[in-house]
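F.,

This is the one I mentioned.
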């Protein structure tokens, strides 16, 4: 039996992660959170049991250990689905690794991962960015390059759609644009970084995206890392949004906060805008990534109604493999066998995962993947 401690099971990702973990009879799951009543409610009907103590990660991040050191001693793997990750993850990961537990996190972006690498004990093992983006986004590029023999001259991907938002997601997004990675409106052309204007970004292609989808180029560390590994000289990563009210509400919020945590009311305004954008429409999320090499092309396609459920399933998969990895703070994109994960996800309800020959914008014969009413 592997003993798993799950934090954040009451969130959108954590709920899906708990469902996936609880389906595995080889795991003994304990759930910890800041609201004992909700923790008990979420454990009901699953094999998981509530932790004996209440855990507040805000207190932990501020330097007060609310019993976490003691709790991690009871776990082989600590899974952290609580967020926002940029506020809580490093503090919890450090305690887990010092307590000799392995650590899994769907968040923990590059600056935080580098911070954790500097303070982690040498024998600590963690698998982070274990979600759809970052995570599967990087693996998709590896999978398509592998299909062409491990090299690619050019990579292009579109990723996003129309999804409900969560509190952690809004806070995380604001942090990413405040801290910035320098990758906004940037692509790689002939091996160099180039800024592009909005009309120069490749539009999200039909039939995979509707014409309401908007494209934004973004070259982040994950994409550049993978592009370097496969030798790609031309790279375009396109984030896709499909909700004008949400984009406007986030822009307003961005103007009103400056490094401080956004207020509950301003986050509420963004969440309300996201709900309005969803009104009368079906949620969707698509990841379409194509590699080209010597006249050949290969495409990875993931389509789902619920990106949080996919992220929860990925975090659960990471929980099962993390203890097989060597010491280190590994991002999901570096796992030894990417196909093992994508094959696992292919069985997830409401989700399609395919690797296809040909270029994404021009793949034919797979219109059966386009469910009626979604696009
Ligand atoms: N890689 C990816 O593709 C990806 C995608 C989505 C999310 N994520 C990451 O997954 C994490 C969760 O995101 P989400 O969308 O599921 O967020 P969410 O729905 O807002 O859930 C947040 C969770 O964190 C818990 N939490 C918040 N503050 C806490 C505190 N002070 N102490 C203890 N628990 C606390 C919440 O507990 P309560 O129920 O008590 O509020 C809830 O369980 C984030 O780190 C996010 O970055 C990654």
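My design for it:
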């Amino acid at each position: 039996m592997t003993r798993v401690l799950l934090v954040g099971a009451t969130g959108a990702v954590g709920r899906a992660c708990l469902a996936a973990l609880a389906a595995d009879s080889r795991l003994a799951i304990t759930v910890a959170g800041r609201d004992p009543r909700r923790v008990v409610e979420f454990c009901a009907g699953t094999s998981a049991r509530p932790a004996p103590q209440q855990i507040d990660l805000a207190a932990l991040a501020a330097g007060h250990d609310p019993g976490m050191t003691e709790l991690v001693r009871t776990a082989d793997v600590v899974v952290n689905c609580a967020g926002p990750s940029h506020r809580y993850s490093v503090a919890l990961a450090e305690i887990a690794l010092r307590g000799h537990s392995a650590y899994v996190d769907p968040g923990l972006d590059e600056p935080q991962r580098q911070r954790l690498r500097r303070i982690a004990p040498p024998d600590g093992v963690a698998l982070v960015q274990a979600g759809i983006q970052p995570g599967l986004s990087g693996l998709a590029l590896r999978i398509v390059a592998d299909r062409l023999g491990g090299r690619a001259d050019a990579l292009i991907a579109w990723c996003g759609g129309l999804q409900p938002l969560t509190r952690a997601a809004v806070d995380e997004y604001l942090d990413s644009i405040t801290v910035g990675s320098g990758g906004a409106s940037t692509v790689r052309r002939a091996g160099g970084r180039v800024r592009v204007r909005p009309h120069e970004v490749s539009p999200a292609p039909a039939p995979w995206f509707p014409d309401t989808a908007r494209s934004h180029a973004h070259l982040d560390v994950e994409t550049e890392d993978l592009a370097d590994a496969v030798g790609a000289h031309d790279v375009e990563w396109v984030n896709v949004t499909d909700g004008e009210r949400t984009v406007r509400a986030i822009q307003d919020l961005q103007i009103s906060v400056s490094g401080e945590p956004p207020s509950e009311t301003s986050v509420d305004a963004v969440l309300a805008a996201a709900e309005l954008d969803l009104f009368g429409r079906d949620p969707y999320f698509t990841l379409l990534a194509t590699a080209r090499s010597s006249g050949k092309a290969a495409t990875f396609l993931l389509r789902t109604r619920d990106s949080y459920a996919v992220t929860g399933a990925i975090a659960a998969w990471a929980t099962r493999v993390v203890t097989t990895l060597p010491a280190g703070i590994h991002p999901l994109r570096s796992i030894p066998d990417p196909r093992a994960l994508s094959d696992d996800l292919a069985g997830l309800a409401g989700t399609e995962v395919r690797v296809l020959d040909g270029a994404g914008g021009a793949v034919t014969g797979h219109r059966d993947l386009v469910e009626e009413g979604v696009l």
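The chain has two domains: 2-128, 136-306+337-369.

Talk soon.
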